[in-house]
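Per reviewer request, we include the raw input and output of the structure prediction for the construct analysed in the revised manuscript.
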Amino acid sequence: MQRSLHSLLLLLIGASSGAQQAPSNPSSPTDSGITLRTGTNLVVVDVVVTDKNNKPVHDLKVSDFTIQENGLPQQIRNFEEHTAPSVVRNVASPPKLPQGVFTNFTPIPQTSGPLNIILFDTLNTPTADQAYVHAQILKFLRDSHPGASFAIFALTNSHLVLLQSFTADPELLRAAVNSKKSRGNSLIIENPQTSDKPESQSEILEEHAAADPREAAAIKGVLEKLKQTEAETTTFELEMRAKYTLNAMSQLARYLSNFSGRKNLIWFSGSFPVSVMPDPTVHNPFAAVANSEPEFRRTTSLLSRSQVAVYPVSAEGLVNQQMSLTTAPGLGAPRTVQKYQNQQFSDAVDQHATMLDMAYQTGGKAFVNDNDFSGAVDDAIAAGAHYYTLTYTPTNNNADGRFRNIQVHLPLQKGYDLSYRHGYYADSVNDTPATPPPDTVHLAMMHGAPEPAQIVFKARVLPTVPATAPNEANLIAGTAAGTNASKSRGPYRSYAIDCAVISRSISFATANGLHSATLELMTIAYNENGVLITSTRSEARIDLPDEEYARFLRGSLPLHQQISVPAKGTFYLRIGIYNKTNDTVGAIEVPVSIVKDLPSDMYSSALPPTEPDSQ
């Protein structure tokens, strides 16, 4: 469900435990504002239609389309054509918040076109390729046409960093790409396309064995153990890369979930293997197998539900698979050269297959073996700038968790290419996941991470006593110290956190006329280096009969916590609300420095309402 930006902000800023608002009606995907999901079986499919020249096709009608799920015809309930605007209006400025009040609502440029996100993935991109990708992104931003709105993220050292929130200002975008935060270390130790890749210890031993058969028998056992260890070490490194990358994609999906309409994620990455096949050359091939398929499924489903289409761009550019012997390691050992070439080809196929699969699953397009990165971004934006949104209610309403294939056709139109997400998993939106993702809360509560807004709320943070009051010697009840006792020691100051959660952003499980949800409120104090200093958690259980549930959706939910923070030092409060019922989360980060000197007499048990004429 969606509201206009203005009415949403009135609700967000002025809502209190007693606030009453009329229920909103569903509106078109192009309405400005934020999407508040309460759970529905409506399937949304964005379809990009291009002709044989890769140009967008305009003015199609709902009667031109047919849609099937697992081969069964579905009735199209809603249909809309979206065209990139010629002019983008500036980002809408939200009303000024009172002192000490913060929100995870993010305004975006008001446009009927999609939002574009550039993800510069240094984690999976060899260092030798990063400078070229960086230059190509800057080239695109320099030459880009006005009208497209962008946000820029970087995946560096296993962390996702927001470099620039949505803007159409090219100067801000270029400054974000050039910022120090965009730099990071790759988990790819060497680029396999270069000639200076060092030989492994097992390859060196194999060369000795090939040169002197008498040594072969003596080192056979050592060689087998060494190869096994190397294979398992490589697998572990690949596992970590896949884990960090999928975590970042999940964070992006949660961050983008409440922005209405389509989002194009242009992902510059050197490689991304989700699975590692058994290595038949080692003694125990299945000990060196990593498989991230469950996480991949969960992440692509989350991206699709958030209407995020992924456009991977291979940062390796045009790869010549016919590598000459002079560029391969181990020049004196043809067997080693052949093995290296085979492995190079296998890795490239695996990595590109994963990129192609993620694009296919989300309705995007992968760009591989192409050195024109700037052109790839242009193509991705052009492909995603004009699209059609179709919705339908599945004839099969059984939430069995199985994959449902989606087929969209233009029966009377010939020669057109259609890009859209090709399926979804029929998981219930109301039931608690059987195996909740273990990293949801951890990722949302990381210091400096993007602030997810699946649950929309505002938080007021104020000191509990005047600045002139003496410091506290001990932690207040409910606050736990971090593992590093020296950094978490007192004296302390305590802060009160009062939250107002927009009720419609809370999903409930419904059974026998009772609507239930379990929310976890947590606050973590970090120092400037991201070290956890203190933390507190509490839980709220909500059980509402039908009549109370209807009233609840028209207001907001108040939550309260207090936390102790060391009196001296630079600290940040990360405030999060997690819905255990459906694995959704919202978070806000507040520098303690901007609230520590506020008057404590501003504190009360509930957030004060704000009058509409003061917005």
